[in-house]
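Researcher: Re-running this chain for the archive, since the previous output was lost when a drive failed. Same request as before.
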Amino acid sequence: MPEPAGLRFLRVLVTVLTVVMMAGIIGILGLIWHRYSNARAPLPEVITLPDGTSATAYTQGSDWYAVVTGDDRILIFDRATGKLRQEMRIETAK
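Model: Regenerated structure tokens:
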């Protein structure tokens, strides 16, 4: 017994929509992967901290990187030279 034309159209439509949705998800994931894999600046080879400090966190920008130390300071270094640009003390809220 042949299937009705409306049912065949619906089956093809659901199949096509499934394929398009899967291709879209793969495309979006590929774009996210490409964006994040090429966006990172390289890490510096060596970071020289002042004596007696230890690093607890690290972050970076396009031409700088920052290290949060164990004694509640943020040290901002120049990426090109490695020299200290700025030092900020973290104050606790009272």
